[in-house]
Design brief:
ABC2_TM; single chain; 246 residues; globular; 11 helices; mainly alpha
Length: 246
């Protein structure tokens, strides 16, 4: 890792620690949901508790990837320091990489309370190998949401990014089956759910952690969404750069 990437990572991490409310909220809400809904209704069922744990781990991590990253990028664009950084010969890679590394650290912290609650208060069970594989799948599955966050962050203002990211986040979480088991979703939501990126990641996590059979449609849709999000993020970045520096 280059010294520039390390410098940006350190700076952005300190920035995150100095305003920890987003980190606390991202870690607390999924754990509270575990206590309020999973423990009473599915805590004694090993498979259901394991699937719910995976879902809420992803729910918290997705919040940071989509809402946190989009707002941070949009706020950066409005600071005078950011245009100066973008004129330097190092290019955008060090700052992009630092931002992604910090976001990954934030997301890793957000899953710890859910794991602790599941381990202490439910019958959820998983082997160390499956847990590590599940965490790897979690980070891989967050790629389209980070790309979508970059699209939002470069396309709209900071105030608009707060609203847009939240408006997208909760419907995606509900449609993806993260808050309710897929088998009890209403019919119209169940029909749409496999075509959302959140459901694709959830299917992958459930397969790894609970041994379910993933829906191939959901996995293909996840790949398609990743390509679309990548194209959107690249377009938004070029558009923003053209407006500021052309």
């Amino acid at each position: 890792m280059s010294s520039l990437v390390l410098a940006h990572t350190r700076y952005l991490l300190l920035e995150q620690i100095r305003v920890p409310i987003g980190l606390v909220a991202g870690a607390l809400f999924p754990a509270v949901t575990m206590v309020a809904f999973v423990i009473p209704f599915a805590g004694q069922d090993p498979k259901a508790a394991t699937m719910a744990t995976a879902s809420l781990m992803f729910f918290g991590a997705m919040s940071g990837a989509l809402i946190g990253l989009s707002i941070n990028v949009a706020q950066d664009r409005e600071q005078p320091w950011n245009p100066y950084l973008r004129t330097l010969p190092a290019g955008p890679f060090p700052r992009f990489t630092g931002r992604i590394l910090v976001q990954c650290a934030v997301m890793l912290v957000s899953v710890v309370p859910v794991l602790v609650v599941a381990a202490v208060f439910t019958e959820a069970t998983i082997t160390p190998a499956r847990l590590l594989l599940g965490l790897a799948a979690l980070f891989l599955g967050l790629v389209p949401f980070m790309l979508l966050a970059l699209f939002i962050g470069y396309a709209v203002t900071a105030k608009a990014a707060i609203a847009v990211s939240q408006v997208l986040f909760f419907p995606l979480a509900i449609l993806g089956g993260l808050l309710l088991p897929p088998q009890i979703l209403p019919g119209f939501i169940e029909a749409v759910s496999p075509y959302t990126p959140a459901r694709g990641v959830a299917e992958l996590l459930w397969a790894i952690t609970a041994g379910t059979t993933p829906d191939p449609v959901a996995l293909v849709a996840l790949g398609v969404w990743t390509v679309i999000a990548a194209a959107g993020a690249a377009w938004a970045y070029r558009r923003d750069e053209g407006r500021r520096f052309s």
